[in-house]
UniProtKB/TrEMBL annotation:
<feature type="transmembrane region" description="Helical">
    <location>
        <begin position="661"/>
        <end position="683"/>
    </location>
</feature>
<feature type="transmembrane region" description="Helical">
    <location>
        <begin position="721"/>
        <end position="742"/>
    </location>
</feature>
<keyword id="KW-0472">Membrane</keyword>
<keyword id="KW-0961">Cell wall biogenesis/degradation</keyword>
<feature type="binding site">
    <location>
        <position position="261"/>
    </location>
    <ligand>
        <name>Mn(2+)</name>
    </ligand>
</feature>
<feature type="active site">
    <location>
        <position position="457"/>
    </location>
</feature>
<feature type="transmembrane region" description="Helical">
    <location>
        <begin position="689"/>
        <end position="709"/>
    </location>
</feature>
<keyword id="KW-0808">Transferase</keyword>
<dbReference type="GO" id="GO:0016760">
    <property type="term" value="F:cellulose synthase (UDP-forming) activity"/>
</dbReference>
<feature type="binding site">
    <location>
        <position position="130"/>
    </location>
    <ligand>
        <name>UDP-alpha-D-glucose</name>
    </ligand>
</feature>
<feature type="active site">
    <location>
        <position position="130"/>
    </location>
</feature>
<dbReference type="GO" id="GO:0012505">
    <property type="term" value="C:endomembrane system"/>
</dbReference>
<dbReference type="InterPro" id="IPR005150">
    <property type="entry name" value="Cellulose_synth"/>
</dbReference>
<keyword id="KW-1133">Transmembrane helix</keyword>
<dbReference type="InterPro" id="IPR029044">
    <property type="entry name" value="Nucleotide-diphossugar_trans"/>
</dbReference>
<protein>
    <recommendedName>
        <fullName>Cellulose synthase-like protein H1</fullName>
    </recommendedName>
</protein>
<keyword id="KW-0328">Glycosyltransferase</keyword>
Length: 743
């Protein structure tokens, strides 16, 4: 028997299942109880019933997704025994703006990719620059010079983290008593060279006019012809050399849509198609550097094994892991627990979502192949004129691209070396990177990255899985890639609004998960898992309503909870206790703190009721034809010291701006403070609290969850909620109080 390349291990989760079911049962009891007494209570009771119905629905989805988790173990050390040669791989990096995404970040990502443990003659790295920036271009040329000494250094000393900004952090200093003097010398030399690289790039950033490339003259970011430059070609095909490095800035024209990142990835797919046409494509965001140099080998364990069911693995996704996160995750956006339980849970169904970065794709799958259309059944031959014409309708008019697609789809160059003279393909590459190339083709629709959603990643993964393909998480001990999560509330809000917009948009495409379950091959349980995230934006309404109810009840002298003398109060109380203990235990089991749990819970209240609401509004406006959805690029911290957000002082404090996204949170806080005052004064007058104790507890809970807003109301400057926001929230609260207040 030949050695295994990977193993699938079912995770035991009996206790978790029991808890899931208990919560489900309690939710059902609560609903039944509410229904039974619907007539005796007013509006709050009915609203609570609606919200809780939604939460129950959500719980069913979550329970389904987490039900049968699996983990995968990979054995890259067996690869050699399995095959003589590793398959070629094209690596894509996307960047869009030299200011929001400082070139030094992209440079580090590129360097870490060029230096991975993989035969260099099997690799090509393509950088897409949607910013069409001479500074980015210059930075890459400088990075290339550095790469020529950096790569041999990394391989010689088996460096673990090959992004220099992380390698040269202060905590990573070699210890002079252990390290050899030869090593210390080399280390110092590399450090100085890297410093020089940084200085050169910064000098050009300060003085952009010093970049005088002829082909960048007259280039405007959103209106320019295609620029493709082969920065480096590994001509001799050296396995220990420097991989090909190609700069691509696709044509932009104000009249033609460019489809943001999805468009950029499709251009990279085509450009690499005519140049190297590797069967495996890795794509990373510009801020996601390689953290485990063996990661491509781990991924190949899933992709090369053609013996049995491994065949239907379409892509290998590395969970998004972030470095240098703030202590206890004040912004609740490290997503560790989410990926650990929901991601692994999906692994037990049809596999995780494609999440845009750190993902290894099969080219033929991206080109639209289904798992049952294996290479033998789908006969492609370039002599078959009809099929060539057909393929041109799909892939566009470039003959060279169509030929390369035929090869990719029929798996001809699966293992053969992809080395060809890439410079000679530049003309063809420029052609396929044109702004009109995709007109009347299937790009963005049936092949490539999907268009029509600002979360092109989830949509693309869904289309792939709708054909029946599976996917897996690759989670070696050392995470494959590390990135940077935004560390300011204002930026997080924009990102969350974009995500929820995009996820909801998917429901309105012909790639709707329900349709592809009925008419395609998406499994039912996988459909539910997609529904979980596709409906994030819609969750804002019940969340907002439920979060406003306690205050509303205190103001209007009504209640939405059973009184504490009613035994039924045990249902919501045990729900509160069990649910929170359960989520807390997930955090503790993942090695996170109680504080991190609370921060994440609280952030989830804040984000759902604000940013997600705007996601919902964005989609509504789009459906009404009033506006288009836009991909706002997340600004990345420059992070000179490679320490992540840790470095910055006050980094964990919440910042606000005039954006309307802060209105709901501010209004909720104001409403609850007024509600508490009214409730307590009524209590002082009547001396009887029993009727509202539940509402008061909930009120306090909401205020605690929105504590950052309470602080924002008393702080100043960027740490304070601006007056315009307070004003708008005040008007809303005034209206609501006026409507509901009964003394
Ligand atoms: O017009 C554009 C816009 C963005 N990008 C690139 O897209 C990537 C992701 O953009 P970012 O602003 O960092 O968005 P995030 O919200 O951090 O990205 C997450 O969410 C996206 C979907 O919304 C996924 O595509 C990403 O992989 C995932 O990391 C970056 O490399 C950008 O340079 C482009 O190439 N062209
Ligand atoms: Mn990002």
């Amino acid at each position: 028997m030949s050695p295994r390349l990977y193993e699938e291990i079912r995770r035991k989760n009996t206790l978790q299942r029991l808890t899931d079911l208990t919560i489900f049962f309690l939710l059902l009891s609560l609903l039944a109880y509410r229904l039974r007494f619907l007539d005796n209570h007013g509006l709050p009771w009915f609203l609570a019933f609606l919200c809780e119905s939604w939460f129950t629905f959500l719980w069913v989805i979550i329970m389904n997704t987490k039900w049968s988790p699996v983990v995968h173990k990979t054995y890259p050390q067996h690869l050699q025994k399995k095959m003589d040669e590793l398959p070629p791989m094209d690596m894509f990096v996307t960047t869009a703006d030299p200011v929001l995404e400082p070139p030094i970040i992209t440079v580090n990502t590129v360097l870490s990719l060029l230096a991975i443990d993989y035969p260099a003659n099997k690799l090509a790295c393509y950088v897409s620059d949607d910013g069409a920036s001479p500074i980015t271009f210059y930075s890459l040329t400088e990075a290339l010079k550095f790469a020529k000494i950096w790569i041999p250094y990394c391989k010689k000393h088996n460096v673990q983290v090959r992004a220099p900004f992380r390698y040269f952090t202060s905590e990573n200093q070699p210890q002079s008593n252990i390290a050899s003097s030869e090593f210390l010398q080399e280390w110092t030399h590399m450090k100085n060279e890297y410093k020089l690289l940084v200085q050169n790039i910064e000098a050009v950033e300060r003085n952009p006019s010093s970049c005088t490339y002829e082909f960048f003259s007259k280039v405007e970011k959103s209106n320019h012809p295609t620029i493709i430059k082969v920065l480096w070609e590994n001509k001799e095909g050296l396995a220990d050399g420097v991989p090909h490095l190609v700069y691509v800035s696709r044509e932009k024209h104000p009249k033609y849509p460019h489809h943001f990142k999805a468009g950029a990835l499709n251009v990279l797919g085509r450009v690499s198609g005519v140049m190297t046409n590797a069967p495996v494509m890795l794509n990373v965001d510009c801020d996601m550097f390689v953290n485990n140099p063996q990661i491509a080998l781990h991924a190949m364990c899933f992709l090369v094994d053609n013996e049995n069911k491994e065949r239907d693995i379409a892509y290998v996704q590395c969970p998004q892991v972030f470095y240098g996160g703030l202590k206890d995750d004040p912004f609740g956006n490290q997503m560790i627990v989410l990926q650990e339980y929901l991601g692994r849970g999906m692994g037990g169904i049809q596999g995780p979502f494609y999440s845009g970065t750190g993902c290894f794709h099969r080219r033929k799958v991206i080109y639209g192949l289904s798992p049952n259309e294996t290479t033998e059944t789908k006969v492609f031959s370039s002599s078959n004129v009809k099929s060539v014409e057909e393929l041109k309708n799909t892939f566009g008019h470039s003959t060279k691209l169509v030929e390369s697609a035929v090869k990719a789809l029929s798996g001809i160059n699966e293992s053969s070396s992809s080395l060809s003279d890439i410079t000679s393909s530049i003309e063809e590459a420029i052609q396929v990177a044109g702004a009109t190339y995709e007109f009347n083709t299937q790009w963005g629709n049936k092949v490539g990255c999907m268009y029509g959603s600002t979360t092109e990643d989830v949509q693309t993964g869904l289309r792939i899985q709708s054909k029946g393909w599976r996917s897996v998480y690759s989670t070696p001990k050392t995470p494959g890639f590390l990135g940077c999560a935004p560390s300011s509330l204002t930026v997080i809000m924009v990102q969350q609004a974009r995500w929820t917009t995009g996820l909801l948009e998917i429901l309105f495409t012909n790639n709707n998960p329900m349709l592809v379950t009925i008419f395609g091959n998406l499994r039912f349980r996988q459909f539910l898992a997609y529904l979980y995230c596709n409906t994030w934006a819609m969750r804002s309404l019940p969340e907002l309503c439920y979060n406003a109810l306690p205050a509303y009840c205190l103001l209007s002298n009504t209640s939405f909870l059973p009184s504490i003398t009613d035994p039924a109060i045990l249902i919501p109380t045990s729900l509160l206790v069990i649910y929170n203990t359960y989520t807390l235990s997930e955090f503790l089991r993942t090695g996170l703190s109680v504080r991190a749990w609370w921060n994440t819970q609280r952030m989830s209240r804040i984000v759902t009721t604000s940013a997600w609401l705007f996601g919902l509004a964005n989609v509504a406006l789009k459906l009404l034809g009033l506006s288009e959805t836009v991909f706002h690029v997340t600004p990345k911290d420059r992070d000179e010291h490679g320490e992540g957000a840790h470095g910055a002082a006050n980094a964990s404090r919440f910042t606000f701006d005039e954006s309307p996204v802060f209105v709901p949170g501010t209004a909720l806080v104001m409403l609850h403070v007024i509600g508490l005052v009214v409730g307590i004064s009524r209590w002082v007058r009547n001396g009887d609290l029993t009727a509202w104790i539940g509402e008061v507890v909930c009120c306090v809970w909401v205020v605690a969850s929105f504590m950052p807003f309470v602080k924002g109301l008393v702080r100043k400057g960027k740490y304070g909620v601006p007056w315009s926001v307070v004003g708008k929230a005040g008007v809303l609260v005034g209206l609501l109080v006026n409507y509901s207040y009964i003394s």
